[in-house]
Amino acid sequence: MPVAVITGASKGLGRALGAALAGRGWDLVVDARSAGPLEEAARGLRRAGARVVALPGDVADAAHRAELVAAARELGGLDLLVNNASVLGAEPLVRLEAQPLDGLRAALEVNAVAPLGLVQEALPLLRASKLFAGSASSPHTGDGDAPSSHTGTESSKAPGSGGAVLNISSDAAAEAYETWGGYGAAKAALDQLSAVLAVEEPGLRVWWVDPGDMRTDLYAAAVPDDDGSRRPLPETVVPALLRLLDAGAADGRYAAPGLLDGVR
């Protein structure tokens, strides 16, 4: 069975994606900072038939990152690494004149430094993966499409040459929104790291995805005056992420809206 590591998997998009992968027969290593909510999420994943290793901890901790990769190795390898864990750097968000510098450091550490550290730890397993072997496009039976709204170069990578890295980004990485400067800077750093990783690791598929604003605890903490009721639930974004897998999509940045429109 294919194996995925998903950070920030106790709630929101990480939990929703984990449930979808478990339903497809994936085995999972999941992480979050709070042990109770993580174990609750893991129980639901196990009910879907997945083997699940739930490891509470902080992705900013190198020892914890090594533990996540070791758990994947015990499950048989690593085919998909999902860097989803995130912090804002200030709650609620504030203008740059009031941005706590310690908060900015934390945002950079969790949103950019930790994902790179986890990639570094996981590279041997990702390089050995045969995620797309046996198909010109997909490890699963799908509709052949993946998200459009794509920036980057067309992939010439051969199927079966390695695993995939999915980094969850934000439109704040590419647009200038008042009060989103610290968080946006951290996600912009993640985008650039992702783009360079795609060039340096031609055997991997590397996707960095802006899922759009969602009805999550993170968004509520960022903008508490917005009740979020008009924001889509994270579950509505998951089909687009699955279609990246189903299509073996080209490396690049994928962004909402239009995430479900088709693929290059």
Automatic annotation (TrEMBL):
Stretches for region Disordered: 136-163
GO cellular component: membrane
Record flagged with keyword Metal-binding: no
UniProt cross-references to InterPro entries, sorted A to Z: NAD(P)-bd_dom_sf, Sc_DH/Rdtase_CS, SDR_fam
Organism: Streptomyces paromomycinus (Streptomyces rimosus subsp. paromomycinus)
Molecular function (Gene Ontology), one example: oxidoreductase activity
Family recorded in the similarity comment: Belongs to the short-chain dehydrogenases/reductases (SDR) family.
Transmembrane segments: none
Keyword Oxidoreductase: yes
Designated name of the protein: Oxidoreductase
Compositionally biased spans, kind Polar residues: 148-158
Keyword annotations of the record: Oxidoreductase
